[in-house]
Structure formats: structure tokens, C-alpha cells
């Protein structure tokens, strides 16, 4: 059979070929922007509509997503996103409103935001919540800003150090660094808890507080959590909880009850808002009583109480010592808040609790099935995720090879090489939305791959074999990023 090469969208381009024919204008023409702002050298292809549709449809098939298959990307909570969320966030009353409309005309939207603040307070045990932050890292920045404002208001100006465990997500030290504070790394002990001796040595009157992820990124719930919280508070510090991933805690443990002062939520993880394609994220922040006056402004509040016949009037309120605005308008309303609101109301309190119970059950089931094949360095009952080593004694197969080979078995790889404290880490978070059949197929694949690692290691070194593109040179790809599959002739001059 002859090989007939399919042309790229750029090679299909033909001068004068049109995708859209505009009708003759029936309104006056307006002037173009000044000449120096216009360019005519962009080599955009000229194509018919059908060529463009086929191009993008083809590209979309290169993708892997939660709607394609299992996605055990640890710490990212790639759970299934119920499609009813898509219906509600497209309701015209949500979709076609503008944040500058008079509040009387957007009472429904404000009611949803108010209720969302209340629900997140109830879920987390905090006294106040802001919905503004755009994502988890932005929530961290907001939370740490409030911690700094709290110390400053008390003239406690010596405090410049944040304690962060070595298992923390990289955004924690990054957020702290952006505020000019320094980071003191606290090691984990052999059971994956905060090392209490190291914590004791680090606690003094220069500590802003501690940023703790619990369960941490090893999937371990800290067995000494009350001690840790008390030690930080005894030296005058505040406790920050990284609640990006609440998938193990819903309806079971409330960080506010454990003594945390501030925590961000990732609605785009725990509460099923889709992510991974660039957003929109949503990272509300909850605070304890002593930080409520520092919350960003505005918050949604009731500005006129209702009664039996009258709905309350919702509007905006400003906390007394607010750190100010963290985001244009009110956070990611439709894409984040409406979807998460739908998810929470579809589940209710019992349903939320069931989410966490099944998330923990699924992770433990997989851990139990893989324990005899892969080394699990922190091997005890895990929460929503666990971390195993992607290496076998006497073999040069690495975690990356195992992950690439999983793609041939039609699974998305787990998180690789994180947390940093596990050698050749493979971090697996199945989430509650997978059934036992899927978990078994995944475990079977990993066990088969461990066999292949012994009998035909090169099969793994060169994987994947079944994807549109094979093994990439990842270092080169990161250093010399080219995001288009075709470069125009005048590429150099365009750069
Ligand atoms: C995802 C994650 C973050 C960061 O959240 P973004 O929305 O990606 O900024 C922080 N901490 C933990 C533990 C996470 O899993």
C-alpha cells in the first residue's frame, strides 16, 4: 500500500481559501487601530471550516482525560466531573450576569456565594471564608498574607520564619518566599509524621507559623497532629493547613476543630471542578475566629435580614482589618463556584462523608494489592493516596519507565518523583469515582509491568509504544519548548 502522508493544517493552506464568508456590512465601518499596532506578517493558514474542525478534533484525540480513563495522578484528585455541573454553570442566570451589575439584579448569584461560604465553613470548621483566590497557590498567598497582618497588628515584628515539612507541595515554600519570609524545613519521621524533635528545635518567637498538609503528600494522617498544633501555638505561631486535597477528610475531620487558623480549599480537586487543562481553578480560604477581620474584601454578606415572607438582601461587606482585594471581582464564579456548589448540593452531608470513605478505601485497596510487588516505604493505613517506589533491586528500570509503560496499558501515569523524600516515587490517588474493576485492571497492569521489568527491561525503557508520540527527550523538551507542530518560514524573524 502506498504511504500517503496527511498534510498538516499549514500545508493545506491555500491563498484565498475561506472558512467564513461575512455578509455585506450594514453598519458604518470603523477605523482600524493605528498602523504601528497592526501586523501583516503573521503566516496564518487559509482554510475552510471543515479543515479547521478536523485539525482540532484530531488534536483532541491525542489527549488523555478523566473522561477517557483512569487518572491516578497523586495529590491532583483527578476525580470524575459530574456532567450536571456543566448544565448548572451554563444556566443563563449564572452565565449572562456581569460582576458590575447592581446587586438587586444578581441576588441569586450572591445567595449562591453566601451559601457556599457557609457550607465551606461547616465542612472545615472555620469561622469565615473568602471565595476570591483563583487557585490553591493563590489561596496560600492570601492565607499567609493574613498571618503576616495578624502578627503585624500585634506589633510582633520579629516573626519572619515559616515552618514547612519536607513532604510539602512546592507551592508552600513558593508562597512564603513571595512574601519575603524564610522557610525552615521540618523533616518527616520514619512513620511519615512531622518529626517532633525537629519541630521543637525550630519553634521560637521568630516563627510566623507552620504550613502543614494533613494528610500529607505521602497520604499519611499525622498521628501527633494535636501535639504539632499545640507546639506551634505555644511559640506564638499560627497554623496553616494546606487543604488543597480534602478528599480524605470530608464529613470526618474538620481542620478548624484540630486548631488550624487558616486553610485553602481547592474546589478544582476535592469538589470536582475540572482542572489540568489550565483552569479555571478556585481556591477559597477559611480562617479561625482570630483571623476573620483580616479576610480579603469584599465578602458576600446579608445586608438586610429577611423574614418569613421576604428573602434577605445579599450584598458585599468589608472585614474590619481586611488585607484588601486579592482578585478582580469575586473569584471564579461560574467555572468554579457554581460547579462546586452543584457538587456539594448533589451529595449533601452524608454523600460528602461517603466520598471520603470510598476515596480512602480505594487507595488502601490498591496499596494492599501492590504491596508485595512494589516497595512502600511508609507502609501503614493510608488516606486518599499512597506512595511507592518505582524501582526493583538489581534492575535499571526507573519510576519514569514504569509510568511510560502504563500508557501502553491505557492508564494515565501516577505522579512521578514527588514527594521528594521517596526514592523513585510513584504517588497514586485513585479517588472515590473508580470502581473495583478499574482498580483491579490498574493493579494487574502494574504487576505485569513489574514482570516485564525483569524479563524485557528495554520494553519499559523505550515505552510508550502505542501513543501518537513515543518517548520524549524530556530535558530537551523543557529547555527548547516548541508548542506548534509547524514553523513558518519567517519563524526566526517572528521570534
Ligand atoms: C494542588 C496542590 C496545591 C496547589 O494548588 P493549585 O491550585 O495548583 O495552585 C497545593 N498543595 C497541595 C497539597 C496540592 O495538592
Can you tell me about this structure?
By secondary structure, the protein is α/β, with parallel strands linked by helices. It folds into 2 domains: 262 residues, Type I PLP-dependent aspartate aminotransferase-like (Major domain) (Aspartate Aminotransferase, domain 2); 131 residues, Aspartate Aminotransferase, domain 1 (Alpha-Beta Complex), CATH 3.90.1150. Helices cover 35% and strands 11% of the residues. The chain has a 7-stranded mixed beta sheet with strand order 1-7-6-5-4-2-3, sandwiched between helices. The protein has a 3-stranded antiparallel beta sheet with strand order 10-12-11, covered by helices on one side. The protein is globular. The protein starts with 48 loop residues before the first helix and ends with a helix. The model has no long low-confidence stretch (mean pLDDT 94). Bound molecules: pyridoxal-5'-phosphate. Pyridoxal-5'-phosphate binds next to helix 5. Pyridoxal-5'-phosphate (PLP) binds next to helix 5.
Oligomer: single chain
Q: Any idea what the CATH architecture of the largest domain is?
A: 3-Layer(aba) Sandwich
Radius of gyration: 26 Å
The overall number of domains is: 2
In the CATH hierarchy, what is the class of the largest domain?
A: Alpha Beta
Query: What is the CATH homologous superfamily assignment of the largest domain?
Result: Type I PLP-dependent aspartate aminotransferase-like (Major domain)
H/E series: HHHHEHEHEHEHEHEEEEHEHEEHHHH
Mean pLDDT: 94
Q: What is the overall silhouette?
A: globular
Tell me the β content: 5-15%
Structural class: alpha/beta
Give a short account of the largest sheet.
Answer: 7 strands, mixed
What's the total number of strands? Answer: 12
- Which molecules are bound in this entry? pyridoxal-5'-phosphate
**Which residue ranges are poorly predicted, with pLDDT under 50 across at least 5 consecutive positions?**
none
Instruction: Count helical runs.
Output: 15
**Alpha-carbon distance between the two ends:** 41 Å
CATH domain fold name of the largest domain: Aspartate Aminotransferase, domain 2
Give the neighbour order of strands across the main sheet.
1-7-6-5-4-2-3
Q: Helix share of residues? A: 25-40%
Amino acid at each position: 500500500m502506498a504511504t500517503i502522508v496527511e498534510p498538516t493544517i499549514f500545508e493545506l493552506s491555500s491563498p484565498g481559501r475561506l472558512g467564513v464568508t461575512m455578509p455585506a456590512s450594514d453598519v458604518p465601518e470603523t477605523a482600524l487601530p493605528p498602523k504601528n499596532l497592526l501586523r501583516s506578517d503573521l503566516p496564518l493558514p487559509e482554510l475552510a471550516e471543515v479543515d479547521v474542525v478536523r485539525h482540532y478534533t484530531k488534536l483532541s484525540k491525542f489527549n488523555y482525560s478523566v473522561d477517557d480513563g483512569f487518572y491516578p495522578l497523586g495529590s491532583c484528585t483527578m476525580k470524575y466531573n459530574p456532567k450536571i455541573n456543566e448544565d448548572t454553570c451554563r444556566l443563563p442566570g449564572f452565565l449572562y450576569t456581569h460582576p458590575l451589575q447592581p446587586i438587586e439584579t444578581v441576588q441569586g448569584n450572591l445567595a449562591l456565594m453566601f451559601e457556599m461560604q457557609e457550607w465551606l465553613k461547616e465542612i472545615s470548621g472555620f469561622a469565615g471564608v473568602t471565595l476570591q483566590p483563583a487557585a490553591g497557590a493563590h489561596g496560600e498567598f492570601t492565607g499567609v498574607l493574613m498571618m503576616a497582618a495578624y502578627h503585624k497588628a500585634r506589633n510582633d515584628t520579629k516573626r519572619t520564619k515559616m515552618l514547612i515539612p519536607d513532604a510539602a507541595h512546592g507551592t508552600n515554600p513558593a508562597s512564603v518566599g513571595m512574601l519575603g519570609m524564610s522557610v525552615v524545613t521540618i523533616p518527616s519521621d520514619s512513620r511519615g509524621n512531622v518529626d517532633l524533635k525537629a519541630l521543637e528545635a525550630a519553634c521560637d518567637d521568630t516563627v510566623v507559623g507552620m504550613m502543614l498538609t494533613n494528610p500529607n503528600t505521602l497520604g499519611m494522617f499525622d498521628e501527633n497532629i494535636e501535639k504539632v498544633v499545640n507546639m506551634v501555638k505555644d511559640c506564638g505561631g499560627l497554623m496553616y493547613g494546606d487543604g488543597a486535597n480534602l478528599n480524605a477528610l470530608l464529613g470526618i475531620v474538620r481542620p478548624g476543630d484540630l486548631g488550624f487558623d487558616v486553610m485553602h480549599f481547592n474546589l478544582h480537586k476535592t469538589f470536582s471542578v475540572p482542572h489540568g487543562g489550565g483552569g479555571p481553578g478556585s481556591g477559597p480560604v477559611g480562617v479561625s475566629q482570630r483571623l476573620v477581620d483580616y479576610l480579603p474584601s469584599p465578602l458576600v454578606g446579608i445586608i438586610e435580614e429577611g423574614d418569613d415572607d421576604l428573602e434577605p438582601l445579599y450584598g458585599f461587606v468589608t472585614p474590619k482589618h481586611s488585607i484588601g482585594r486579592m482578585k478582580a471581582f469575586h473569584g471564579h464564579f461560574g467555572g468554579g463556584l457554581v460547579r462546586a456548589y452543584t457538587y456539594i448540593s448533589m451529595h449533601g452531608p452524608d454523600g460528602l462523608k461517603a466520598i471520603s470513605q470510598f476515596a480512602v478505601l480505594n487507595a488502601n485497596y490498591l496499596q494492599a494489592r501492590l504491596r508485595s510487588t512494589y516497595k512502600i516505604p511508609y507502609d501503614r493505613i493510608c488516606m486518599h493516596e499512597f506512595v511507592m517506589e518505582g524501582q526493583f533491586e538489581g534492575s535499571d528500570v526507573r519510576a519514569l519507565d514504569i509510568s511510560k509503560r502504563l500508557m501502553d496499558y491505557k492508564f494515565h501515569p501516577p505522579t512521578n518523583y514527588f514527594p521528594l523524600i521517596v526514592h523513585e516515587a510513584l504517588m497514586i490517588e485513585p479517588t472515590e469515582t473508580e470502581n473495583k474493576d478499574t482498580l483491579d485492571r490498574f493493579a494487574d497492569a502494574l504487576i505485569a509491568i513489574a514482570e516485564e521489568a525483569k524479563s524485557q527491561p528495554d520494553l519499559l525503557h523505550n515505552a510508550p509504544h502505542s501513543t501518537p508520540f513515543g518517548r520524549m527527550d524530556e530535558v530537551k523538551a523543557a529547555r527548547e519548548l516548541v508548542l506548534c507542530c509547524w514553523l513558518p518560514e519567517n519563524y526566526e524573524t517572528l521570534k
